[in-house]
Design brief:
The chain is of the alpha/beta class and 244 residues long. The protein has 10 helices and 7 strands.
């Protein structure tokens, strides 16, 4: 089953919301899920901040954070920069997407030379869909990916490769086996005495570490555990201890 693509649209709601609404409809017709903003109508504008009838709060910070959180969950950010206008909020959202390593698409080429360098690809909604559909699954993660995003990637990878019937016990046993392989690779890495025949069969230490990490993420998914939350809570507890 093909995963439904998710997108967020940024732009000036006060200047271009009608155009943004048309873009929302276009993405939805193409089969994408527009996480934010919703197909709505303008209720009020306060200091250039636009309130929509779909908003669940009147707190500007809460609403903006919800838009940023949507970018975090989306496959890409689409910037509706009609007539080369990009407001401060949109620039912040662009920076947020960049920090997350999300693909960024723009309706038009920005005139600002610096923004041009970071605005990704100029594309229509249909072109955006085609580009996203042809990406490798690995393109969804990068060095800036959060632990939650890595867990999500592993969850999708397990399903894609047909390993989703494995139990936590199965994954645990396989991780223990990989720890043994990691120990062998470490033995070679540090130069601990071994025969040449065995050395030739050892894989790279980095790959063995990655295998152990993959199974750890998989086990956390199978047990519905957020590794980030678990790490944070454990370290909070550790900070109260005295270490000799």
């Amino acid at each position: 089953m093909t995963k439904k693509l998710k997108i967020v649209i940024s732009g000036s709601f006060s200047r271009n919301f009608e155009g943004i609404k048309e873009t929302i409809k276009e993405f939805k017709q193409l089969g994408l899920d527009v996480l934010s903003p919703k197909d709505s109508k303008v209720l009020d504008t306060v200091n250039d901040f636009v309130f929509l009838d779909s908003d669940k709060s009147t707190d500007i910070k809460v609403l903006e954070q919800a838009h940023l959180d949507a970018i975090t969950s989306a496959d890409a950010l689409y910037i509706y920069n009609s007539e080369d206008y990009l407001g401060d909020s949109s620039k912040m959202e662009l920076g947020w997407a960049l920090a997350l390593g999300k693909p960024i698409f723009c309706k038009e080429k920005p005139k600002d030379s610096t923004i041009q360098l970071f605005c990704g690809q100029i594309a229509t909604p249909e072109e955006t869909k085609n580009i996203l559909e042809n990406r490798s699954p690995l393109d969804s993660i990068n060095e800036r990916s959060s632990v939650a995003e890595l867990q999500k990637y592993i969850h999708e990878m397990v399903i894609r490769r047909g390993f989703d019937e494995e139990s936590p016990r199965d994954a645990m046993l396989m991780m223990v086996e990989e720890v043994g392989e990691m120990a062998k690779a470490m033995r070679k890495y540090i130069g601990l005495k071994t025969d040449q025949e065995k050395q030739d069969r050892y894989t790279k230490l980095e790959h063995e570490l990655a295998d152990v990490f993959i199974y750890l993420l998989d086990i956390a998914n199978l047990l519905n555990v957020s590794l980030f939350k678990a790490l944070h809570e454990k370290e909070k507890e550790n900070e109260t201890r005295t270490w000799n």
